[in-house]
Amino acid sequence: MSDHSPERTALFIDGSNLHAASRLLGFDIDYRALLDHVRSQCRLLRAYYYTAVLDTDEHNPIRPLVDWLAYNGYRVVTKPAREFTDSNTGFRRIKGNCDIELAVDMLELAPHLDHAVLFSGDGDFRRVVEAVQAKGVKVTVCSTLRVQPPICSDDLRRQADAFIDLADLASEITRRPSDARPRNNPGPPPPRPAPARATPAEPFAEETEPSTGE
Questions:
Q1: Is 142 within 8 Å of 201 (Cβ atoms)?
Q2: Which has the higher per-residue pLDDT, 54 or 127?
Q3: Which of 19, 43, 65, 91 has the fewest CB within 10 Å, making it most exposed?
Q4: CA 212 to CA 177: how far, in whole Å?
Q5: 43-53 and 115-119 as β-strands: parallel, antiparallel, unpaired?
Q6: How many CB atoms sit inside 10 A of residue 70's CB?
Q7: Are the C-beta atoms of 48 and 10 separated by less than 8 Å?
């Protein structure tokens, strides 16, 4: 994604994996900035975001993000997460992912794409990347190797046509705090933006710790 190109491109974002990677690198994703960055360099056809959601009566921290994404250019795919008690530790755990949904969408959209960008380091996606490449689609994987242990599967990185370290995109897609109001401005504060204008803060991932699939 370094040069302007008319390539027909789609993003496939493994929500929990991307969230975990960005947190380990010490920044939050600005999803509006992410879309703007990609659109400035290619012909973006679709941007998918996948996440498991725990349906409970309590406040669900991922809902504001999911709702915002759905109204701001993303196609959000969710699946119910499952809550259980670990028999070994007795701790509450949450399990769920949308790996199958992501793989199916990538395969179905492949005939209409020149370039698929996968935001995940999960090695379980290696086979679907290979299958999409066999249809003539270039696949770029975006994850990170700059944490220990690396969150990106080595098998997935080697299978991809290109790899972008998330750390190298940080300056383009990082959430920034609002500019402080100048102290010498005697006027009223500016109106607060509508809820859909700013990316809500990302919640902690609904899923268990992301696997690299290795």
A1: no
A2: 127
A3: 91
A4: 31
A5: unpaired
A6: 14
A7: yes
